[in-house]
Amino acid sequence: GQNIDQPTEMTATEGAIVQINCTYQTSGFNGLFWYQQHAGEAPTFLSYNVLDGLEEKGRFSSFLSRSKGYSYLLLKELQMKDSASYLCAVSPFSGSYQLTFGKGTKLSVIP
Amino acid sequence: NAGVTQTPKFRVLKTGQSMTLLCAQDMNHEYMYWYRQDPGMGLRLIHYSVGEGTTAKGEVPDGYNVSRLKKQNFLLGLESAAPSQTSVYFCASSSLSGGAEDTQYFGPGTRLTVL
User: Fold this and answer.
1) Does A96 sit within 8 Å of B108, measured CB to CB?
2) Residues of chain B where predicted confidence (pLDDT) is lower than 70
3) How many Cβ atoms from other residues are within 10 Å of residue B80's Cβ?
4) pLDDT at position B100, please?
5) pLDDT above 70 covers what percent of chain A?
6) Residue A10: beta bridge partners?
């Protein structure tokens, strides 16, 4: 089975840095995705980690530790538009086939 | 290039009524998926398809049927709607290259209310 845990809600200040954690216990693991979902909209792709380590993409970075079953999404220089839900998803296969999603973390950015 | 589109965007049904949700993608993706999203539950996979003419059950398939007669279309049917099926339904598609860019692309969602 798959068990994916994320904090339900987080609040951070504009301009600050926030780290959203995701832990997983799965029967099979190949890679981990992060998606962003604004209220009332569809999820959109942020990052994909297969190997251990940090992947940086502009203001967003994602980290993976396969041995610890742990990932985090790091958002720097927070902007009001970053207020959204962030979804962690695990795939037992190469690519995004058969994703299992966490329940998502709702991030509120305040002035 | 429209990506993934869903029809309709909103629908209200009465208990026992039937309806079909249509998903279309123009990216020539092999894989297509139907999810439902409920508050506090996250995205849950209903059914998926790995190619034209094939379908398979996901995590929460009861009360739903699907068909993939054409590669670009994936239909989700509710034969006898129940209030428990009130949800937001998302369709998604992905390629089978297995690479880092092999993400799922989501449609805008269908908001369904069953009274």
Assistant:
1) no
2) 98-101
3) 11
4) 59
5) 99
6) A107
